[in-house]
């Protein structure tokens, strides 16, 4: 059976987006599903990926044997988890490749051409591809030890501020801490219960509101200043000594870019695509389809 479709999937710590394209007619289908982070919650990742793919196959009426698929997912740096996913996935595709969401972001950002990319979503990662097509990943170590500049770590910093105020005053005082307390609890007991169950996506949910407080709360500004410093360090490491164009991607790219110093803002060019576009590009490169009428 010839390959008639490509499927690209972008899976992160908060949500999954997948797109199916008919190579002959260019008709597209796109769906959303739950979070996909192989390292943070493998079972949820498998469920989200399966859900997204099954939705697309059902909507299009195609067979997996007609599909070339590339999944760009958080946590794919762990090859044992990638192998487990390929074994456990209850679907069979003509071609399937599982790569990191950093790689799909890299290929989407500049339509497959040399570029440096810093992706700021629930987590964070940098990656570059030079003129020789050599790829290098920076960061991407996960929430426990890394992900500086991502939404989860920004939320983590805000929670730390709340805990500091609880230690000093017994209650939340700043506007930021009052907001965080409204989301996770006002007492030591309720906060500890939240922390015991919190995943990176839960910390990341706190991030968007922090930006809106920067002009009215000095503590929020302190947190955002630390956040920006982390991003600028990641940009510096990602670009290295190269003169590659730089693209910021991800849900926190736009609000964070406005806070960067002028030196770093001047390095950034508009993106030509996103991680999902990159996954689709790689899926097309993966196959040499024979398109029949």
From TrEMBL:
Signal peptide: none annotated. One of its GO terms (molecular function) is glucosamine kinase activity. CDD domains: ASKHA_NBD_GspK-like. Its EC number is 2.7.1.8. It is an enzyme of class 2 (transferase). Residues 7-255 form the ATPase BadF/BadG/BcrA/BcrD type domain. Keywords: Kinase, Transferase. This is Glucosamine kinase GspK. InterPro entries: ATPase_BadF (IPR002731), ATPase_NBD (IPR043129), Euk-type_GlcNAc_Kinase (IPR052519). Gene3D superfamilies: 3.30.420.40.
């Amino acid at each position: 059976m010839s390959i008639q479709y490509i499927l690209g999937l972008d899976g992160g710590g908060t949500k999954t987006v997948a797109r199916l394209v008919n190579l002959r007619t260019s008709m597209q289908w796109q769906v959303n599903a739950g979070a996909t982070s192989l390292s943070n919650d493998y079972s949820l990742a498998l469920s989200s990926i399966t859900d997204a793919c099954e939705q697309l196959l059902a909507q299009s009426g195609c067979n997996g044997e007609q599909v070339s698929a590339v999944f760009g997912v958080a946590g794919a740096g762990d090859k044992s988890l990638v192998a487990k996913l390929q074994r456990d996935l209850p679907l069979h595709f003509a071609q399937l490749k599982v790569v990191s969401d950093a790689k799909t972001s890299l290929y989407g950002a500049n339509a497959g051409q040399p570029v440096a990319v810093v992706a700021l979503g629930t987590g964070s990662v940098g990656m570059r591809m030079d003129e020789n097509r050599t790829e290098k990943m920076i960061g991407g170590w996960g929430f426990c030890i890394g992900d500086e500049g991502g939404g989860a770590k920004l939320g983590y910093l805000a929670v730390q501020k709340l805990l500091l105020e609880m230690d000093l005053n017994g209650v939340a005082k700043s506007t930021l801490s009052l907001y965080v307390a409204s989301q996770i609890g006002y007492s030591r007991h309720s906060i500890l219960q939240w922390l015991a169950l919190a995943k990176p996506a839960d910390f990341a949910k706190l991030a968007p509101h922090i930006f809106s407080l920067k002009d009215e709360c000095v503590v929020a500004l302190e947190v955002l200043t630390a956040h920006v410093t982390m991003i600028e360090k990641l940009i510096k490491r990602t670009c290295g000594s190269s003169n590659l164009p730089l693209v910021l991607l991800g849900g926190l790219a736009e609000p964070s870019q406005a806070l960067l110093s002028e030196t770093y803002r001047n390095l950034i060019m508009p993106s030509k695509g996103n991680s999902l576009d990159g996954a689709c590009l790689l899926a097309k490169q993966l196959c040499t389809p024979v398109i029949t009428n």
